[in-house]
Amino acid sequence: MNNFPLTIVIVFTLTTIASLWLFARALPKSGNRKYIMAGIFAWLALQSILSSNGFYDDNMSMPPRFAFAIAPALLVILVLFVTKNGRSFIDNLSLSSLTWLQTVRVPVEITLYFLMLEKTIPGLMTFEGRNFDILAGITAPVMAYFAYVKRTLNKKILLAWNIICLLLVLNIVVIAVLAVETPFQQLAFDQPNRAVMKFPIIWLPVFIVPVVIFGHLVSIRRLLYAPALKQVLS
């Protein structure tokens, strides 16, 4: 566990499980669901093995090794949005589950705070620094409840919320990447971002962050193309 306190390991592992469960609920009820989830589990297992064996300890090579942690998921997202079959898949996802999924950002931010206390990430990656992502997690259940349970939320408000929250997560992604010890490091030289390259925190950049970004992109696309909110309620 790379000497992380047991509390951090438990909280973050439960957060990852919750993310997996909510994403599974968003998937169409088809035979492909089990293959998609099997692929995600295999990806998490691979990254767990690599991070546990020190693969990401040296990021001074070119390209930096941490690119292997973030690039594949981003490439999958890109393919889904630019291909016909990918867009068909996107348009059958549950926006309700994708919105509820954003609540995992609260325990993620709590985990980051305690990782800062352990001096494994810089303070600017927490809500005490430049990371305001916890606001997205706090407001997510409110938006999900009024949009998909009460069905009283204005489509424009939900769209604006998704855009703002997407910008919040992109903000911390940029900060986190620039704080990793690589030839491109620009921030936090006194306390670099090391924890996210270790097991089990590696699950944050390889799965949780991409699925959070994906959820917002899917919601924005669907809301932009839907004349009324009721046409995307699910």
Task: Describe this structure in a few short sentences.
The chain has helices at residues 6-26, 33-52, 67-82, 84-90, 95-101, 105-117, 134-149, 155-178, 203-225.
Protein model, in words:
63% of the residues lie in helices and 0% in strands. With 234 residues, it is mainly alpha-helical. The chain is globular, with a radius of gyration of 18 Å. It contains 9 helices and no strands. Helix 1 (6-26) runs antiparallel to helix 5 and helix 7 (134-149) packs antiparallel against helix 8.
Give structural attributes.
9 helices, mainly alpha, 234 residues, globular, single chain
> Ranges with pLDDT <50 over ≥5 residues?
none
| Strand portion | under 5%
Record field, number of beta strands: 0
Structural Rg: 18 Å
What is the 3D shape? globular
Quaternary organisation: single chain
Mean pLDDT: 92
Count of alpha and pi helical runs: 9
Distance between the termini: 39 Å
Q: What is the string of helix and strand elements?
A: HHHHHHHHH
Question: Portion of residues in helices?
Answer: 55-70%
User: Major sheet: size, sense and barrel closure?
Assistant: none
Pairing-aware structural class of the strands and helices? mainly alpha
Topology, element by element:
Blueprint: H1 6-26, H2 33-52, H3 67-82, H4 84-90, H5 95-101, H6 105-117, H7 134-149, H8 155-178, H9 203-225
Helix pairs in contact: 1-5, 1-6, 3-4, 3-9, 5-7, 5-9, 6-7, 7-8, 8-9
